[in-house]
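Data availability (excerpt). The following record was deposited with the supplementary files.
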Amino acid sequence: MAQKPSIPKGTRDFSPVEMAKRNYIFNTIREVYHLYGFQQIETPAMEMLSTLMGKYGEEGDKLLFKIQNSGDYFSGLTDEELLSRNAAKLASKFCEKGLRYDLTVPFARYVVMHREEISFPFKRYQIQPVWRADRPQKGRYREFYQCDADVVGSDSLLNEVELMQIVDTVFTRFGIRVSIKLNNRKILSGIAEIIGEADKIVDITVAIDKLDKIGLENVNAELRDKGISEEAISKLQPIILLSGSNEEKLATLKEVLAGSETGMKGVEECEFILTTLKTLSLKNEMELDLTLARGLNYYTGAIFEVKALDVQIGSITGGGRYDNLTGIFGLPGVSGVGISFGADRIFDVLNQLELYPREAVDNTRLLFINFGQREAAFSMEVLQRVRAAGICAELFPDSAKMKKQMNYANAKGIPFVALVGENELNEGKVTLKDMATGEQRLLTPDELIEAL
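Predicted structure:
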């Protein structure tokens, strides 16, 4: 007996019902992006490793899926290199390409390559899958979709404000209650400066970003492992655990960071974003959260993260400002800011909270039962008119037993069936049956369309 096929861990198949739900997510996000003037692009699934490596920090580089070269990829290797069993070194020799880790770095590459065709500021969105060689677990997959929106070529903080409005609009449309968390890498740099560990900013941010996952004690232990002094860790505690309203946090930060020009700039930027958003009456709460660091090293200003309030799951949206990402591809001085919706996690949240509108997951509304050749021919004529009216409908292809056709309708969740027998043919009408109530009505084709 043939072995049952399988798929790689951390990947999933999606049924027709699941795809209807996913398309509802993508279409909702796409509509909101269009509403705010964003244009869609796509980039290849694979990029040159030279494009990807070094953009996500040391931990991110380890999670890149590498693609081995075609042909005899051992030809350029010495026996000594092969016998060394140094996986990283060998991979660098026979892997030139990798699957994209996110959509932001490929976007930066796109901007540099197409800069002569682009009008700045450039507002783009992209809805495509990404891949990470992570350990699969609940809410974390190796293949998943991101739904990104970025603005490049503008330093204005109004872009950050607008992106937060997009986040608020999308989750309001989904009916998901969320907390939108805001921080600024300049604040984090200022904190590192004030506690005397300015050169350890990356180690500090990577550690405190894990606060809600591993707890304060483990964060402090990780800071010690990175060589950060006990005095600096002690000074960091009240800042990490800062509480109160956004206004109170900003007031405290102005005192704590008074000696850091960079830190004060970050406070000023956060204050502008929060003050402006307050006048726009968002439906969801905005919170200044100093533990928010986001592990990606390319952020330079505001950083965002969105958490669902009614479901235990990781971040479902994130993003931030990056001032020098295109510089590494030869185009310095182009500032950008972006957000990314985690479609797969949003899918899980909507499932748990049962928030899908029925019309989003319903497909076929009407099934014509097939009683034979003459009846099917008449049904096809009516079916054409029904579809022209924008109603999703189908005809069962075989004149099978009535029970089999009804079971098909039930299995697909089709709410109505159309019966065309001898009597209906003679009158040029259709009997419409409501599958939920069992009610039946004899209708003309026009009345049938009106009823649906």
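Summary of structural features: The mean pLDDT is 89.
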